[in-house]
UniProtKB/TrEMBL annotation:
<dbReference type="GO" id="GO:0010181">
    <property type="term" value="F:FMN binding"/>
</dbReference>
<protein>
    <recommendedName>
        <fullName>FMN-binding domain-containing protein</fullName>
    </recommendedName>
</protein>
<dbReference type="Pfam" id="PF04205">
    <property type="entry name" value="FMN_bind"/>
</dbReference>
<dbReference type="InterPro" id="IPR007329">
    <property type="entry name" value="FMN-bd"/>
</dbReference>
<keyword id="KW-0732">Signal</keyword>
<feature type="domain" description="FMN-binding">
    <location>
        <begin position="27"/>
        <end position="100"/>
    </location>
</feature>
<dbReference type="GO" id="GO:0016020">
    <property type="term" value="C:membrane"/>
</dbReference>
<feature type="signal peptide">
    <location>
        <begin position="1"/>
        <end position="19"/>
    </location>
</feature>
């Protein structure tokens, strides 16, 4: 019973530590809205909520930027060639979410 209580307590405290915030940046065509999920101070996930940039160009760039931002734990990563405005807007949106 004691082990079960401790396990439940660990699960609750792990879930309680996750927090998500939303941010907005301006991409090639319009705003890019993202949700950034953090566990304490660590970025664990970034999801695009809204984006109107050309999907065949923007989606691969955002996928790459998401991986790099999570790995580096910073938006200070290089833009993706051929998707400069999308890259800058996405990084701006993530930075905006991290301020909140």
């Amino acid at each position: 019973m004691k082990k079960l209580f401790i396990s439940a307590l660990l699960i609750v405290s792990s879930v309680a530590a996750l927090a998500a915030s939303e941010g907005v940046g301006f991409g090639y065509k319009d705003e890019i809205k993202v949700s950034v999920e953090k566990n304490g101070d660590k970025i664990v996930a970034i999801k695009v909520l809204e984006m109107k940039d050309t999907k065949r160009i923007a989606e691969p760039a955002i996928e790459k930027l998401t991986s790099e931002i999570i790995a580096k734990q910073s938006v200070d990563v290089d833009d993706v060639a051929g998707a400069t405005y999308t890259s800058q807007g996405f990084k701006e949106a993530v930075a905006d979410a991290l301020k909140k």
